[in-house]
Write a structure and sequence with these properties.
alpha+beta, 8 strands, six-stranded antiparallel beta sheet, 146 residues, two-stranded antiparallel ribbon
């Protein structure tokens, strides 16, 4: 997790610890889109996004939930390329959706990153810590050994 500020133009500097990896895996080409259930943004390296996009486009379009998900994720997907200083410009519409104005958090999620308003992230983490997480585990989580 990294905390940082957006600049006045809506650019975020990719934390140094992620820049080299992103240069290698996708030549700094990223896709940013909205999250389907939380007010945050998802930031994918281009090759990872292409896999997600293929899975989404393969889903049956007659299903109203699928159409809604495609509209949300694919319709808001925007390509961002890191500049020479490791910054990307986040579109105003997406910044507004996630409430990104100044202080924000970037957290790794395996094949992608999430971008959060810092206050929203802190409130979410506080709620998670107060919740009795292990009382209502699904079968998938019960079988997880970490």
């Amino acid at each position: 997790m990294a905390t940082f500020n957006l600049d006045a133009k809506g650019r975020m500097a990719i934390p140094a610890k992620f820049r080299k990896h992103l240069d290698v895996c996708c030549e700094g080409r990223l896709i940013v889109t909205i999250d389907h259930s939380d007010h945050c943004l998802q930031l994918y390296p281009l090759p990872e996004w292409e896999l997600v996009e293929q899975k989404l486009t393969a889903l049956p379009s007659l299903n109203p939930q699928v159409r809604r998900l495609k509209r949300m994720l694919l319709g808001n997907a925007t390509e961002c390329e890191m500049d020479g200083n490791g910054r990307i410009l986040l579109p105003a519409k997406l910044r507004e959706f996630a409430g990104l104005d100044k202080s924000m958090v970037m957290t790794g999620q395996g094949n992608k990153f999430e971008l959060w308003n810092e206050q929203t992230w802190n409130e979410l983490m506080d709620d998670c810590l107060e919740e009795k997480f292990d009382e209502n585990l699904t079968a998938e989580l019960e079988s997880l050994s970490i």
